[in-house]
């Protein structure tokens, strides 16, 4: 359980990471949010204008799927090696590997929220139809954060013992991008493949987030959140088991 001391450590490390990243840059923090903004803008134009995906308020639809995907993907990519890459710090100071990991995820989450806020306000104004479902957005964002933290923690621990975990993860995410209804609606998937979409864990997490900004029904979003948090809870149990069995070997493998 995170106490005040651990939370202070997470805050200090998060601020240190942010300051180190922006040191000696001209526009600093803007570089971090530039990537998701450019990806979103280009894909929104290509998928709607070139591929002719005809959906009402498509820019809002894509925003609700693409940015959470970028957050999960970038967190897995940057934080999976975090325990190994910070081995010298962990060996020199009495600090939990989970503090290092949590500060990395929090850093990514701040970047995600900043980019999302910059994009969602004009997208909602352009759509001209603010829905009551937006009230569910904070719950969806917390669910997204919780899932990403727990799943990344599992990957980071496994990466200490099997250094090819980050490569396998990167490959799977590249494939899953096209198999997950991010830039196309779930209705585009043939009926006999719908079960694959429903079992996709990343889509299970992204779905309530998208529904919150795209005007989903409150009761439907609550059911989506229940499923998403159920998945995250199962991952938490898996993490606790892995941590219990592997924590004594962890520093020996660094």
Structural class: mainly alpha
**Can you count the helices?**
11
Mean pLDDT: 88
Helical content class: over 70%
Spans where pLDDT lies below 50 across 5 or more residues: none
How much of the sequence lies in strands comes to: under 5%
Rg (C-alpha, Å): 19 Å
User: What is the tally of beta strands?
Assistant: 0
Give the SSE string: HHHHHHHHHHH
Query: Which outline best applies?
Result: globular
Span between termini: 24 Å
Largest β sheet strand count, sense and barrel closure = none
In total, the number of domains comes to 1
Describe this entry's structure for a reader.
With 254 residues, the protein is mainly α. The protein has one domain. The chain is built from 11 helices and no strands. Helix 1 packs across helix 6, helix 2 packs across helix 3 and helix 6 packs antiparallel against helix 7. The mean pLDDT is 88.
Summarize the structure in short:
With 254 residues, this protein is an all-alpha fold. Helix 3 (58-79) packs antiparallel against helix 6 (97-127). Helix content is 78%, strand content 0%.
List the helices and strands and how they pair.
Blueprint: H1 4-22, H2 30-50, H3 58-79, H4 82-85, H5 87-92, H6 97-127, H7 137-161, H8 165-179, H9 194-198, H10 201-213, H11 218-253
Q: Which descriptors apply to this entry?
A:
mainly alpha, single chain, globular, 78% helix, 254 residues
